[in-house]
TrEMBL record:
Domain Cyclin-like: 33-131
Span list, region Disordered: 1-20
Keywords per UniProt: Acetylation, Cyclin
Name the UniProt record assigns to this protein: Cyclin-Q
Keyword Flavoprotein: no
PANTHER family: CYCLIN
Species assigned in the record: Heterocephalus glaber
Amino acid sequence: MEALDPESCGGVSAPGADGRPAPVERVHFRVTRFIMEAGVKLGMHSIPIATACTIYHKFFCEINVDAYDPYLVAMSSIYLAGKVEEQHLRTRDIINVSYRYFNPGSEPLELDSRFWELRDSIVQCELVVLRVLRFQVSFQHPHKYLLHYLVSLKNWLNRYSWQRTPISVTAWALLRDSYHGGLCLRFRAQHLAVAVLYMALQVYGVEVPAEAEAEAEKPWWQVFSDDLTKPMIDNIVSDLIQIYSMDTEIP
């Protein structure tokens, strides 16, 4: 197993000479999309899905992507995330959902040797993931922060501005999509929550009243996180934009 430089974890690599994302980033994008779609079909809540994506990204910060099948790691990440977040999933359900993902319209796998080999592979891979991550598989996610920030923002904005623009829905969607690129490993949970909210406001051209006042002591986003800076927000937004550029290129 070839170890990777932890400093490169979770970032979106610079585009290649053809302007397209690096091949490894495209692999991780596809696999995390699989985790999210499989998670929804398995009835997983947002936090367990986020945990599964984080486990996956963190594993491949330590291990070269060629060392293990990324989709096997993804299935093990889903299984492990269910345990961590106390939403236990049966390996049989994970296998059936995954099989149908790659073979649409097919019947569930028979309980034959192929099924049991795959089940054993998921369980064994889970142990590998735990060892590589040194059993540190509990994470602080941005979701609770975003929820609090949205409540505060709703009180700051006038009712018309809030009702006519889907700021809340957009911010949640941006946060979910951020897990395609592993931003959860590069940025603090509070900072990521503020950045997706900032981007949602920018998308709809909504201005927070306090930000427009010249006498305001600090911008609204610094009220939520006083150690956050505008360049840090710009970095997160830039990474998010690059994730969406991958989404347009990958079928």
